[in-house]
Structures are given as C-alpha cells and as structure tokens.
C-alpha cells in the first residue's frame, strides 16, 4: 500500500538536497497583481543563504503617486551571521515595472571570517610570485575567499533602496563582492492613450512627460574590523565592485553607465618595484610597501553611496547642494577685516560630520556618487542618516523602515 502523497509546498526548502537551487544561491522576482498588489512571484534560496520577506503597512508620502506601490521588504541573511572561507553567496533579483523593494541586512554587520593561517601565508606567497613573474599561478581562490554577488534588474518606474549594514572583515580574511544593477529601458507600463488630434489652442499644452526610468539608492561600506579585539584593517584583501548597466529589452543591447571599484589589499615588496625605484633614485632603490592601515588612516570606515532615478532626484540634488556649501581648502579670507561666514545648511549638522571626510560628484549627468571616510561606524551612520532623514525622500517613497541600518 502506497503512502498518501503530501501537498507540494510552493517554496523550496533551503536544506533540501533535491532543490534545483545551487548552494548559496537565491532568486527573487517581485511582480504586481491586479489591481495594485505587490507580490513575490518567485522566492528561492539555499543554505548558507536565507531570504525573509514582509510587506509592512506603510503610509507613503510619495512625490510620484501615479507609480507608487507598497514597498516589499527583503532581508538578506546568512547562517552564522557571516561568510566562511569558500562561501559564495549569489542573489538574483528582478523588479517588474512599478515595483519597489527595500533590501537590508537585519543581522547587523556582515562578518567575513578569517582564512586559516597556513592558507593565508600561501596566498601572500603566490601574490609575491605573481608580482615578480607577471604570470598568474594556478590557484583555487574559491577555497579560501568569501564571495558575494548581487544581480538586480529594475523595470520601468521601479525603485530599489539598498541600505545594508557594513561588512566587517576579520583579521586575515579575504572577501570579494560584485553588485550589478541593470536598468531595463523601453519597458513602459501599458496605458490607454487617446490618438484623437484637434486644432484648438489648448491641445498644444501637454502635461509634463512621465519619467519611466528605474531608481536606485545603494550604500556599500566596509569597517576596519573588530576594534575591541585590536583589529585595524588587518585583513588580507577586500574587493568591492559596483556596476550599473542599461539594457534595451527589445534588442538586448547593454551599455555600461557606471563602474566603481574599491580594492584594499596588502602591498608586497618585489624585485621589479625595487628596480624601478633604483632607476629613479627614490629611496636608494628600496620599495616600502604601504599597509592597508597606512593608506586608510585616519578612517575606521570607508563607504560609497550611489543615487539614480526620479525617486531619488531630490536627495541627489540635496547632497550636491550640501557638498558645495562646505568650506573649501584655501577658500577662507584670513584677513582681520574679513567677516566670518558659515553655511546655514551645514551649521545645524556640524557635529555629526566633524569626524567625516566626504566628496560628491555627478557622473554622466543623472548619477550622484558620494565617497566618504569616517572615524568609526557610529560617526558615519549619524552623519549620513542625518542627511537622508533631513531631506525626507527615502522615508516618503519607502517608509520609515526604508532607512535600513541608518
């Protein structure tokens, strides 16, 4: 007698050995059901990755009410609170048109656990050999490097608010992160449009064009490690790359819009560097490699903040105005008769930013890229969180929980 068949679960177990999802891989598709109900049409993940979602009852104060939908919250977790050497997390997210997603990490800072001492020494030796010979030595880096890949595709009028906690690399750890965001063009929502033409003068007054571009707000930052244990940029390597692409959905043609790389690695003393310095007469031919600690001093945290799209235009303009209002080196008149001027915009937030050094720039016109370094995590969070709260776009478009770790 055959046992009765159990009903099939709509979600795959992250521990099931028969699941088609690869270890550490996850896939999420956010869609809109009629009349205006955001839902997850696809949600899958497998150990050591875990994805949790919720749709909080949030009242939005959106500047774009025609396209505003209730944001879906997705929490990115890992079992153990971090990544071990050899772990590879890969998450693929697709936002259908008009969908909004808040992506965050509720476990606090993502820990990058240390590589074994013997393996770490072997990695350093291979790096020296590669620098001397110029040839890559075969190496299975997946065996001792933690990696994370995030691939997000955004449909028209969709929005992503990604404000995670910073990564915290432990001593002797190695980490590589790639975050790729693809903006899908020519994917406008279906709307009923009248084709009747008239000759009246009122027909020449057309309403403002709707901006169908996707929007994204991305924060990527890394700390110096566990300061309570005396760690101060003591890891072997931390590599982070953020890319934004544009893709024509009708032709599949892709174009790179923005690429930002942060590479923190220990420099090594090599014979080729010594020869170069000897030829130039610098330091008697001795190359002095700079540690990560020396190159990042006096900062305890480094970060990148990327803004793009109509949902964050106001915040982008606010940050650019705030940056241009800051005093410049050499910009002060030191004569006794010159009056002292201060910016009213920055004066109210002088204390939160006293331990922060930052810069902001427009890239290709419609991107705003902010780079910052701060004394510690608390200083950076208080400074950036204060600016974002004071402007109000994130809370208005994604609710209070859209602030994430800020």
UniProtKB/TrEMBL annotation:
Positions of the UniProt region annotated as Disordered = 1-23, 184-209, 329-353
**GO molecular function of the protein, one example?**
nickel cation binding
Give the UniProt keywords, A-Z: Chaperone
Pfam families, sorted:
UreD
Q: In terms of domain of life, where is this protein from?
A: Eukaryota
Q: Which InterPro entries match?
A: UreD (IPR002669)
**Compositional bias per record (Low complexity), positions renumbered to this chain:** 8-23, 191-204, 333-350
PANTHER family, A to Z: UREASE ACCESSORY PROTEIN D
Family according to the record = Belongs to the UreD family.
Q: This chain belongs to which protein, by name? A: Urease accessory protein UreD
Q: What lineage does UniProt assign to this protein's organism?
A: Eukaryota, Fungi, Dikarya, Ascomycota, Pezizomycotina
């Amino acid at each position: 007698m055959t046992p009765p068949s159990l009903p099939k679960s709509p979600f795959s177990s992250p521990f099931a050995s028969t699941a088609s999802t690869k270890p550490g891989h996850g896939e999420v598709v956010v869609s809109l059901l009629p009349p205006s109900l955001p839902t997850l049409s696809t949600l899958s993940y497998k150990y050591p990755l875990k994805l949790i979602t919720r749709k909080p009852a949030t009242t939005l104060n959106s500047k774009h009410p025609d396209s505003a939908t209730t944001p879906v919250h997705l929490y990115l977790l890992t079992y153990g609170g971090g990544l071990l050497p050899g772990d590879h997390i890969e998450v693929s997210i697709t936002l259908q048109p008009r969908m909004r997603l808040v992506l965050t990490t509720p476990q606090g800072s993502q820990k990058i656990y240390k590589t074994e001492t013997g393996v770490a020494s072997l990695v350093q030796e291979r790096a020296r050999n590669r620098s001397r010979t110029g040839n890559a030595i075969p190496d299975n880096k997946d065996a001792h490097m933690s990696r994370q890949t995030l691939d997000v595709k955004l449909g028209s009028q969709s929005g992503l608010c990604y404000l995670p906690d910073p990564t915290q690399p432990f001593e002797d750890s190695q980490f590589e992160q790639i975050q790729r965001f693809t903006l899908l063009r020519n994917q406008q929502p279906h709307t009923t449009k009248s084709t009747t033409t008239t000759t009246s003068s009122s027909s020449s007054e057309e309403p403002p064009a709707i901006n169908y571009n996707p929007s994204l707000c991305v924060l990527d930052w890394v700390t110096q490690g566990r300061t309570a244990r005396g760690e101060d940029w003591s890891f072997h390597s931390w590599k982070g790359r953020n890319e934004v692409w544009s893709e024509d959905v009708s032709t599949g043609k892709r174009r790179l819009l923005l690429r930002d790389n942060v590479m923190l690695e220990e420099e090594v003393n090599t014979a080729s560097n010594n020869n170069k310095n000897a030829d130039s007469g610098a330091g008697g031919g001795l190359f002095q490699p700079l540690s990560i600690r020396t190159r990042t001093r006096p900062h305890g945290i480094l970060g990148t903040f990327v803004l793009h799209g109509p949902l964050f235009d106001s915040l982008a303009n606010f940050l650019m105005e705030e940056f241009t209002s800051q005093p410049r080196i050499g910009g002060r008149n030191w004569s006794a008769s010159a009056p002292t001027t201060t910016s009213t915009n920055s004066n109210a937030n002088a204390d939160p930013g006293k331990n922060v050094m930052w810069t902001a720039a427009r890239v290709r016109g419609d991107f705003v890229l902010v780079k910052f370094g701060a004394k510690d995590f608390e200083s950076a969070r208080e400074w950036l969180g204060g600016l974002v709260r004071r402007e109000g776009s994130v809370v208005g478009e994604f609710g209070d929980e859209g602030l994430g770790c800020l």
